[in-house]
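Hi everyone, sorry if this is the wrong subforum. Our group has a chain we'd like a structural model of before ordering constructs, and none of us has done structure prediction before. Sequence below.
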Amino acid sequence: MKTLAIISALLLMSPAALAQTSNTKPITGAPTITDAPGKGMIGTVHTGAMPSVYDLDAQPMEQISPLIQRQYLSGSQSTITKWTVKKGAVFPLHHHANEQTTWIMKGRCEVSSQGKKFVLTTGMVMIFPPNVPHEFLCTEDSIDIDFFSPQRQDWMDGVPSVAAAPAAKK
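Answer:
Right subforum, don't worry. Here is the predicted structure as tokens:
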């Protein structure tokens, strides 16, 4: 029983998300998190894991290129990314094993994929299945939230974003 208690304590102490740097701390107290006895529980489901809350805007801002900045958090199975992009920024043609959901929070981007051009504006969402080639040209200053599944292990391992590479000449 003591071993179970120790394992449960370790699970409760480990954050559910992996941020860009190890000094990122989850939000742990009021007013964001307070006790709610009996709420959010299913009697037949027992887990030692707790959800974690982070402020995405408080994550380190990475300068990926002169026109592109990135902030992200990764959980055990997904990554959420906030891209802050200046007009004229390019994400060159690429593909990855991750499904990608892109939500344009502000601005306008032109996406090319599979011989089609898609114009995304504020509020639009686009879903890319795994390994589908795509490229972005942001024609206005934009805020783009991307959700990747599975997590972007490549970024966690320090592999640079495709946006850090110079755009190919056409």
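For your construct planning: Residues 1-17 have pLDDT under 50 and may be disordered. The chain has two helices and eleven strands.
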